[in-house]
Design a protein that fits this description.
It is a single chain. This protein is α/β, with parallel strands linked by helices. It contains nine helices and 29 strands. It has helices at 17-25, 152-165, 206-211, 298-307, 318-335, 360-380, 399-422, 437-452, 519-527; strands at residues 41-44, 88-93, 100-102, 108-111, 118-121, 127-134, 173-179, 186-188, 193-195, 198-199, 204-205, 226-230, 233-236, 239-240, 242-245, 248-254, 265-267, 271-273, 289-293, 340-347, 384-392, 429-433, 456-458, 472-478, 481-485, 501-503, 514-517, 532-537, 543-545. A six-stranded mixed β-sheet has the order 19-7-6-20-21-22, with helices on both faces. It has a five-stranded mixed β-sheet with strand order 1-5-28-24-25, with helices on one face. A three-stranded antiparallel β-sheet has the order 16-15-17, with no helix packed on it. The longest helix has 24 residues, at 399-422. It starts with 16 loop residues before the first helix and ends with a strand. The relative contact order is 0.18. Mean pLDDT is 74; it is low at 1-41 and 45-98.
Length: 546
């Protein structure tokens, strides 16, 4: 949370700006088929119209190598073909054959005309992205110790705007939401209770307030900080009288200090309930800007970003906000099972608030534990969570300040990594907030875009009958070669320089909606302009055995 104080009679303004900036920035951690090889009709999309493709002449080999001895099949040529390219195999197969590719085999059998039924041009499903942005008070911290430095929020906002306007983002369905969502502030009686775990503020610890923490007190013994002002001068944090800013009657300040935007802190005789953070997941389900396709509605998203500012009193109830986001994403998935729907969380702090505990540390630990549980539940239901961590650049700080702050940053990064890992995306992206922050944030979003748009293709709906998951094959068409990619069990069986694919879910227990190319196969498709993937229905599935 951002303090209102900029100067003060008690000497708070003499606090090292570096220390205040760095501690605030870490989110209050210290405080709280073109050539389809004899396949029949090739169609576009799911049950799309058939192309005018003449039936294959079964008197002719289905590929240049068909009918040749296995040892005569041309092997990959790293100097000429795309990386990892695999040539068609030697043997055509007929219905009923057991189609097995042994581990280590460089080629797969081709699909003969006599077994093929329908071939569909593979279509990648839509991508739905729920972008959840942290607008807690700490996002108002500057990106550096320079007086004219922009805030972390300014950097994030510029980066998201660049992502929205990038041509490469065209086709994304993007929803945008912010957290926390604050309730109304209200007056209260002295030392009364506003709500669970929210104190009525009648006194404020001044250093805590400057660092962004609203710590209520009734005497200075309840204020924890002793600050070294330099030259051996120490300042014991004081409990001071709060007031209201004349330019915002609901904004807390410390009496005799200046408010933001030059406002004056006026005395009042009432306590004040801080804006209570909404702790109900249902509040976070509906995005500020609902799912909209890029670039058509980019202006609406940008306008939302321009109008939004972090709340100086906002905390980071990450588990609550994510639970709401998952509810909306799950609605998308149920309505459009062939689409890819994910959550991207961008935050500068660890989970804080909307949790119970006897001490601030216990509340923080419980909030973190709840967040881990929520993202694990999301991942188990098939919703990936990407995390972008926004952390300060401490390279220019004095050695003693760095030594104090770096362990805090390491703890934050570890927690964000765990959130990403439990959310099915391995690790978080760290954006160091400095003059290059916007470019770094855009780079993180672009890398996420590359992962969100993997080689996943919608399983087509045949014109008649139902899909048989043991009679589905994937052909990779690159530079005039049509290569049958063997099926593997899952991503753990994908091997570099070998073709392969797998279903998005276990076909023995669930109904797959997509086929997923192994990474090296995906790279091969993406590396060659004009490459195409065909989904072939009717031939016994070619399987690679490890």
């Amino acid at each position: 949370m951002r303090p209102e104080t900029t100067t003060g009679p008690m000497g708070i303004h003499r606090l090292l700006r570096h220390t205040v900036w760095a501690v605030r920035t870490v989110g209050l951690l210290t405080i709280a088929c073109g050539v389809s090889l004899g396949c029949g009709d090739r169609k576009e999309g799911s049950g799309g119209a058939s192309d005018d493709v003449a039936p294959a002449d079964t008197d002719q080999p289905a590929s240049p190598s068909e009918g040749m001895p296995a040892d005569a099949v041309e092997q990959p040529d790293p100097s000429g073909d795309p990386a990892g390219a695999v040539k068609p195999g030697a043997d055509s197969v007929t219905p009923g054959d057991e189609l097995i590719v042994e581990d280590g085999d460089a080629v797969a059998p081709t699909l003969g005309a006599e077994c093929a039924r329908d071939s569909y041009i593979g279509e990648r499903g839509d991508v739905n992205l729920y972008l959840l942005l942290d607008v807690s008070g700490s996002m108002l911290a500057p990106i550096s110790a320079e007086e004219d430095a922009v805030t972390q929020w300014d950097a994030v906002r510029a980066a998201v705007t660049s992502f929205i306007e990038a041509p490469e983002s065209s086709g994304f369905n993007l929803a945008l939401n912010y957290y926390p969502i604050q309730g109304a502030r209200a007056d209260c009686s002295a030392f009364g209770t506003c709500a669970a775990n929210v104190s009525c503020v009648v006194g404020l610890c001044d250093v805590s307030f400057l660092l962004g923490e609203l710590r209520a007190c009734d005497d200075s013994s309840q204020c924890p900080y002793v600050v070294d002002l330099g030259d051996g001068e120490l300042y014991q944090e004081q409990c001071r009288q709060p007031g209201r800013c004349d330019n915002d009657e609901y904004r807390q300040c410390i009496l005799d200090e200046q408010c933001l935007d030059g406002g004056v802190c006026l005395q009042h005789n009432r306590g004040l309930c801080p804006g209570e953070t909404s702790c109900e997941p249902s509040v976070y389900i509906e995005p500020s800007v609902d799912r909209t396709v890029l670039p058509d509605s980019g202006a609406t998203l940008v306008e939302s970003l321009l109008q939004r500012e972090p709340d100086p009193y906002g905390i980071t109830p990450t588990h609550v906000a994510l639970a709401g986001a998952y509810t909306r994403v799950d609605e998308w998935r149920q309505a459009e099972p062939g689409a890819k729907s994910v959550v991207v969380l961008a935050t500068d702090g660890e989970p804080v608030g909307c949790a119970l505990g006897d001490t601030p540390e216990q509340v923080r630990d419980e909030a973190t534990s709840l967040t881990y549980g929520v993202v694990e539940a999301g991942a188990s239901s098939g919703i990936q969570t990407f995390v972008i961590g926004v952390t300060p650049d401490v390279s220019g700080l004095p050695d003693e300040d760095r030594a104090e702050i770096e362990p805090i940053l390491d703890e934050l990064k570890d927690k964000l990594n765990q959130i990403a890992n439990r959310g099915g995306t391995t690790a978080s992206y760290n954006v160091t907030v400095n003059d290059d922050a916007t470019a770094a944030f855009v780079a993180a979003l672009e890398e996420i875009r590359g992962q969100v748009l993997p080689c996943e293709y919608v399983i087509p709906t045949p014109d008649t009958g139902a899909v048989s998951y043991d009679r589905l094959n994937v052909e990779v068409n690159t530079e005039g070669n049509s290569l049958v990619a063997p099926k593997v069990t899952d991503d753990s069986e994908c091997v570099a320089n070998e073709l392969g694919w797998y279903y998005d879910v276990d076909a023995s227990t669930q109904s797959p909606t997509r086929v997923v190319l192994c990474p090296s196969t995906c790279e091969q498709v993406n590396a060659v302009s004009g490459s195409r993937v065909d989904i072939v229905l009717g031939c016994q599935t070619v399987v690679r055995v490890r």
